[in-house]
Amino acid sequence: MSDKGDLDKLKAALHGATPQPDPAAKADAMARAMAEFDRVQGSADAVRQMSDRSDNGAGFWTGARTMFNRLTTRAALAGTASIAVIGVGLVVINPDLIERNAETRIAEPSVTGSEFAILADEASPEATTTAPLGEDEAHTSDISAAEPLPPTITPHVGSSDQALMPQANQPASAEAPAAQTQRGGEIQITGEAELEAPDQSLNGQTQLQQSLNIESQLVEEIAPSAEARMDRLRSAPEAEAVPSVPQSQPRRSLAPQSQGIDLSAVASGGHSYAAPQIRESIAAPQPDTEAFPEADRNALKVTAETPVSTFSIDVDTASYSVVRSSLNVGQMPPAGAVRIEEMVNYFPYAWPAPEAGEAPFRPSVSVMQTPWNEGTQLVTIALQGEMPALGDRPPLNLVFLIDTSGSMSAANKLPLLKQSFRLMLSELRPEDEVAIVTYAGSAGLVLEPTPASDRQTIEAALAQLGAGGSTAGQAGLAQAYAVAGNMSAEGEVTRVILATDGDFNVGISDPDALKDYIAEQRESGTYLSVLGFGRGNLDDATMQALAQNGNGTAAYIDTLNEARKVLVDQLSGALFPIADDVKIQVEWNPAAIAEYRLIGYETRALAREDFNNDKVDAGEIGAGHSVTAIYEVTPVGSPARRTDPLRYAPVNVADSPDELGFLRLRYKEPGEETSRLIETPITGDMADGGSEARFAAAIAGFGQLLTGTTYLNEWGWDEAIALANASKGTDEFGYRAEAIQLMRLAKAIEPSPFR
Questions:
Q1: Positive/negative CA dihedral, 634, 637, 639, 645
Q2: Cα pseudo-dihedral 515, 516, 520, 526, rounded to 10
Q3: Which segments of 170-328 does DSSP mark as H helices, in order?
Q4: Chain centroid to CA 525: how far?
Q5: What is the dihedral of CA 745, 746, 752, 755, to 10 degrees?
Q6: For 628, how many CA atoms within 13 A lie in the half-sphere containing its CB?
Q7: Are 263 and 94 in contact (CB under 8 A)?
Q8: Contact (CB, 8 A) for 407 and 643
Q9: By CB distance 3.0 to 4.6 Å, which of 101, 382, 394, 617 could disulfide with 351?
Q10: What SS3 class is residue 450?
Q11: At 720, is the secondary structure helix, strand, or coil?
Q12: How does strand 377-385 pair with strand 577-588?
């Protein structure tokens, strides 16, 4: 009990020693604490939101009263209110300014990162000040909190905007629009109304009311049209940019977005309105209108079921250049842009050339172990064209058909095109002739047929070309063929060289219709070659259709070095044909080969019966050109076979069990109607083709890695790079070394899933 008594005494003593609560001291301490909190938070001078903030605008009036009470000069209030009304009307309500800003785009950003939505005049810091926020806008930040604005973006202010822009030296009274009309999608302001400063003799509340009455009148007149314009801007497609390559990163648009400016709070029938909120908007990537031929990748064939493979040769090189342009900007190429045969045929090879008196080209076949599959073999079929002496070339008539439409304005389009053609002029001889036809909205003859020796006149005609208008492709082609027909003579070679980004949007725009039109024109003996420039709206599908049916070639020029390769180093091959309608057909022996697949040539496939039909068009071989085709074949009995043999399939035995297959080629001499036939067996003891065949295999592997094929097993970028390095051979101009660097880039951008 004594212990309990001692505890009670201690408790009573402690209770007696504790001072009683002092409400006044507590309130004082709380006030000091809140004051310190406000100071640290930076809100000591700010007016806190009050409970009377509601949808009826009470919060707005409270803020207005507070502002009025803090002003020491009522005349200053009158001037400030008038200028603020005009400024808000300019930035928020004027749809003409908004739409012009919406049309502004940055074509080629000089730095990485995103561009910001800019809907206010960056030169005026005051433009970032807004009225107190409503409850539905409490979480929206002011533009002043956004990142710094890019210095290259300047809002355009037209004459109608300048009429509303307050001037520094103007008195408080200003003239503002009194009425509006709408014409051609733009709001036109007519008439004048005087906005007088509130009477200085009135009290502050009445002055503010007068200012807001004037503002309300302006809002009532303009808001309906502004809402309509904003609806059109939200629903209309964004203006197309012209990037050098398709952009994969999201870009920030200058166009008003649904999350950008909210005009729903603008009152059309009252005095109160919510201040516009300028928000940071991230737009979707610019639309990519590039088009590539659609064709399924060649599938594995069972020899017993489909022993014959037929296709047209292809000497185009555009695909490799498109792949290079994509990788050089850190992007993987579009899948449709990868045509493996064009990548392989981009490079010059030292295949055996024909002897004097032989056919204009010489075929050679090699068999080697497949780098990516130990159980299969690669059969390489190579054609090497003869190179006539320069003095034996016939006179050349060239018609440059140049796309000068608005889409060609980028530096890697029309300017590069003109530089490229200047390089080509140095390779022409005095007896050659040049004419220039342009098309943009309508076609026109810029340069009459002129001897190549008159280089000054030709270069002057090129220099005056400028981009603008839509693309009247049909009219341009028709006029170019007409000019070419007048230039051609017996024993001469006549070519139309179309230089474009492929954006045909006037006249014939369907690839099938274009194909038929060009096929009709080639019967005159005038061939058509196509040079592609630029990215973003490159219509590769149309370019391929034109070149294939115009008995010409297609190349893509992304650099001046590529222009030199195509138009200087390989000019003879591009312009002087030595064999027309060249077709390849291989019959595989089912007793020796269980499966096979052709690597590439998907867009050049022919029906089996087309091989013997001389009316079916095929590819051409130019002087000095080489063509390479690669089959992967699976020998009978190989563990690499992917399909099971048929139980009831008949056993086929070839006359020679050593034959893997039989090669047939058809071609026409230029100007002839009847084809000629070349035949040769494919045997297993043929040479492996040396470093040339191995490098071609490395490039074929490169293309397959880009397309994500399933036939490479665990063979990846490292193996492709090693094979290309080991078989690079003589690389006079560095083309093969460049390919190896592109493989390294591709590995860094998108490593193989197997590595």
A1: positive
A2: -10
A3: 204-235, 318-327
A4: 36
A5: -10
A6: 29
A7: no
A8: no
A9: 382
A10: strand
A11: helix
A12: unpaired
Q: Three-class SS of residue 605?
A: strand
340 and 369 Cβ atoms separated by less than 8 Å: no
Mapped onto helix, strand or coil, the DSSP state of residue 232 is helix
Q: Across residues 484-502, what is the average pLDDT?
A: 89
Contacts of 648 (CB under 8 A, 6+ apart): none
Considering only residues 320 and 63, tell me which one the structure prediction assigns the higher pLDDT. Answer: 320
Return the axis-axis angle of helices 735-749 and 690-707, rounded to nearest 10°: 30
**Cα–Cα distances in Å, from 115 out to 87, 149, 152, 242, 254?**
25, 8, 11, 15, 8
Average pLDDT (284-311) is: 83
Lowest mean pLDDT among 3-12, 232-241, 514-523, 651-660: 232-241
Write the single-letter amino acid at 16: G
- Other beta carbons within 10 angstroms of residue 54's beta carbon come to 10
Asked whether the beta carbons of 147 and 116 are under 8 A apart, the reply is yes
Q: How far is CA 106 from CA 99, 129, 239, 428, in A?
A: 16, 27, 11, 40
- Cβ atoms within 10 Å of 69's Cβ, excluding its own: 8
Q: Please check whether residue 261 is in contact with residue 278, taking contact to mean a CB–CB distance below 8 angstroms.
A: yes
SS3 (DSSP) at 465: coil
Alpha-carbon gap, residue 138 to 101, rounded angstroms: 26
Q: Would you call 163 helix, strand, or coil by DSSP?
A: helix
Angle at 253 between CA 248 and CA 255, to 5 degrees: 145
Residue whose structure tokens are 């076949």: 365
Pairwise CA distance, residues 677 & 675, whole Å: 7
The angle subtended at Cα 587 by Cα 650 and Cα 702, nearest 5°, is: 115
Cβ proximity of 669 and 676 under 8 Å: yes
Distance of alpha carbon 480 from alpha carbon 490, whole angstroms: 19
d(CA 92, CA 461): 48
Q: What is the DSSP letter of 87?
A: H
Q: What are phi and psi of 381, to 5 degrees?
A: -110, 120
Distance CA 17, CA 1 (A): 25
Contact call for residues 614 and 642 (beta carbons, < 8 A):
no
Three-class SS of residue 211? helix
Comparing C-alpha atoms, which of 306, 373, 314 is closest to residue 596?
306
Token look-up 């009263």 returns 65
Contact predicate 602/319, CB 8 Å: no
3-state secondary structure of 324: helix
129-to-20, 275, 573, 731 alpha-carbon distances in Å: 50, 10, 67, 65
Give strand ranges (E) for 113-229.
Answer: 174-176, 179-183, 186-190, 193-195
* Chain centroid, CA 379 distance in Å: 37
Predicted structure pTM score: 0.63
For tokens 């850190």, the residue is 330
User: What average pLDDT does this structure show over 25-49?
Assistant: 68
Residue type, 592: A
Which tens digits make up the pLDDT trace of 524-535?
Answer: 888 999 999 988
Type of residue found at 620: E
The pLDDT of residue 34: 80
Residue 184 CA, chain-centre distance (Å), reads 31
**249-252-257 Cα angle (round to 5):** 130
Can you point out the beta strands (E) in 278-429?
A: 301-302, 308-312, 361-369, 377-385, 396-403
Residues near 24 by beta carbon (within 8 Å), at least 6 away in sequence: none
DSSP-based three-state secondary structure for 668: strand
Q: How far apart are CA 444 and CA 471, in angstroms?
A: 12
Backbone phi and psi for residue 291, each to the nearest 5 degrees, phi listed first: -130, 135
Number of other CB atoms surrounding residue 467 within 10 Å: 17
